[in-house]
Amino acid sequence: MKESRSLRLYARLLELYPPAFLQRHRAEMLQNFADLEGAAPSKAALWLLIGKDLTMSLISHFFASRLGTYVIAVLVAWILLFAIGYFRYGSTPGHPALHAFGGFLLGMLSMYIATRLYGTPQNSSYVIGVLVASILIFTTGYLRYGGTPGHPALQVFGGSLLGMLSIYIKIMLISSQTT
Amino acid sequence: MSKSTPPLPLTPAVFHILLALFGKERHGYDIMQQVKADSGDAVKMGPGTLYGSLDRMIEAGLVAKGDTQDPRRIYYRLTALGQTTLRAETARLSRVALVARRQLGSA
After folding, report:
1. pLDDT tens per residue, range A112-147
2. In this structure, are residues B21 and B74 in contact, taking their beta carbons and an 8 Å threshold?
3. Any idea of the CA torsion for A126, A127, A128, A129, to the nearest 10 degrees?
4. How far apart are CA A148 and CA A142, in angstroms?
């Protein structure tokens, strides 16, 4: 099989699928991609199809997994907390909960992708990488724009750390139960 | 999904895969091309969607793997349940189309 740059990128993106699925279909999927690449009228058309396919099938795989069920449970818990907080205390100026929630989602997503692309949860180098990147982004933002009223950046950052931590712990628990 | 009861209605992806495999074993890329042709370019399936669907269909007993050595070209075929399900879904769609034509004709 001729190794094009697109094929190498696709092989990397395949790592986002669950390991058991990849074990069954990696070779077939790479061959299919090579066939599609050979027949595609343009790279744009090829990646449009592949981008849509990856998004839809990864979402489907994710929400069918135990981790997906956990994420749904966490999101439902957040919505309940929002609702209780809103009805009890009303709308808070500056919307800190919304900022923290946005950060939380980003944190979960970044940690999930890092786990899929850069190894097992037991290998902690990617955790440190994501954490250092988050701190760098936060520090750069703070130095460039200064402290903002109500510190929304801090709320987003705190939320993202919580999100990373929650998904990391769950992945550790799942992998320890399956090994 | 039970192995004895055809699970209807089928999703468009599952229906088209069953249709593509009717009467002929095919490998993944061949299935994708056949689905595209059968649907008049309306259903374009990528590898992720195809193999996710095939896994579920194998689990449901609708499709089985053929005897292939090359892991890059695994062939798939319809099982007896797959054929029954395809016929049942085609009959169901025909009834729906008939009702729709009748309604549209009287409108």
Report:
1. 887 777 665 555 676 677 777 777 877 777 777 665
2. no
3. 50
4. 8
pTM value is 0.72
Note whether A50 and A33 are within 8 A (CB). Answer: yes
In chain A, which among 21-40 make CB contacts under 8 A with chain B?
A: 21, 24-25, 27-33, 35-36
Domain boundaries, chain B: 12-106
The third-level CATH classification (topology) of the domain covering B12-106 is Arc Repressor Mutant, subunit A (1.10.10)
Using alpha carbons, select from A67, A162, A174 the residue that is nearest to residue A122: A174
Q: Which of A120, A118, A99 is nearest to A162 (CA)?
A: A99
Greatest alpha-carbon pair distance for chain A in Å reads 62
Residues of A with CB below 8 A from B47's CB?
25, 28-29, 32-33, 36, 53
> Would you state the structure tokens that stand for residue A58, as one six-digit string?
């990864």
Residue B34 is given by DSSP the state H
